[in-house]
Specification:
alpha/beta, DNA polymerase, domain 1, TIM Barrel, 2 domains, 10-stranded mixed beta sheet, two-stranded parallel sheet, 12 helices, disulfide bond
Length: 347
């Protein structure tokens, strides 16, 4: 019998499982408490459940789908995990400390097939999608790491390795599970999902009728340059992406974030800033400027600090809200996919 991961089940699915197996439905509340509040390491630790039920749970489910391979801790408090999966693959998860609280960045795929030229996640291509439970478990493991210091995960960003909108259903299920009041109870407004622009699923996301944030990996002010940096633009050109973004804004009334990685000599010149300002002027959005992380396999250089502020000044002149992302974990393998790529080379 193939076992399911316990974290793959929603609260309603636990209630349904209890009913099918002849247990009171309210046992689902106890399961959720053990998984998400007490965060136990085995079914045997669920001491208010009958012994035969604990044995039954062990027969049908794996409790934790992740094993820690490596933990890196930065001087700024950023923590990066390399987790091993049941099939020998590895994924990354990051804890980041902000002045507004602690956030966790989760991964949705082993590798990535989108092929952005500045990203380490795409090295080696896509291996497989993660299940909802494998994504949920990343947040649980991060919270367990924080438990000794009584710190709490306040927000979650789905911005790790992989393209969430190419693993759409498990990613959306993940959001619903961590949002559930019987579990981690992370508010929808404290969850942000990022996409490189899978247009059909962007429309689906807009129709979900919730308050989850959306970030678009843009990285270029025109379709020609974007196609060079992000091959997905050849499938979903910039004009189609912006049409979907406008639909999202109209449907949800929420502000949209555009992620823009500044790459030395590629997309960071004054003319790029002016073009981007004209493109986004009047749109209810925030542009998040990201100094590109150095990746040994990619021959890209960082934009000088003075030039970054000039880029922001130009966008401000078009009344486009702009921030510069604070760096996290610069002294460790902080970029998405870096730690996994290093592990793969050494294994």
């Amino acid at each position: 019998m193939v076992k399911t991961f316990a974290y793959d089940l929603s609260y309603q699915e636990w209630k349904d499982w209890m009913t099918r197996h002849g247990h009171p439905e309210w046992r689902a509340n106890q399961i959720m408490d053990w998984l998400y509040v007490k965060r136990v390491d085995s079914f045997g630790d669920m001491t208010n459940l009958p012994k035969n039920m604990r044995a039954e749970l062990s027969e049908f489910f794996h409790l934790m789908p992740l094993q820690v391979i490596t933990t890196q801790v930065s001087r700024d408090g950023t923590v990066k995990f390399l987790f091993g999966l049941h099939d020998g693959h590895a994924i990354e998860t990051v804890i980041m400390r902000h002045n507004y609280g602690i956030s966790v960045c989760v991964t949705t795929q082993v590798g990535c097939r989108v092929g952005c030229t500045f990203c380490a996640s795409t090295l080696g291509g896509l291996k497989r999608n993660l299940s909802a439970g494998e994504i949920v478990a990343q947040v649980v493991m991060a919270q367990k790491y924080l438990d000794p210091s009584s710190e709490k995960v306040k927000s979650v960003v789905v911005m790790g390795s992989g393209e969430p909108f190419e693993n759409y259903e498990p990613t959306m299920k993940f959001v619903r599970i961590i949002n559930d009041g019987h579990g981690l109870n992370i508010g929808q407004r404290h969850i942000t999902v990022s996409t490189s622009g899978v247009v059909p699923n962007l429309y689906r996301f807009a129709d979900e009728n919730w308050q989850v944030g959306l970030a678009i990996s843009l990285h270029a002010p025109n379709t020609e340059l974007r196609s060079k940096l992000m091959p997905i633009n050849r499938r979903y050109p910039l004009a189609e992406l912006l049409d979907a973004c406008r639909y999202y804004l109209e449907k949800t009334g929420r502000r949209l974030t555009f992620e823009y990685a500044l790459i030395g000599g590629k997309n960071d010149q004054s003319e790029h800033a002016h073009e981007l300002g004209k493109l986004l002027k009047g749109m209810n959005c925030l542009v998040n400027l990201i100094p590109v992380n150095y990746v040994p396999e990619r021959n890209y250089t960082r934009t000088p600090r003075k030039q970054i502020f000039e880029f922001k000044r130009i966008l401000d002149s078009y009344h486009v809200n702009t921030t510069i992302r604070r760096e996290h974990g610069h002294d460790i393998d902080a970029a998405c996919g870096q730690l996994r790529a290093k592990h793969s080379r050494l294994s």
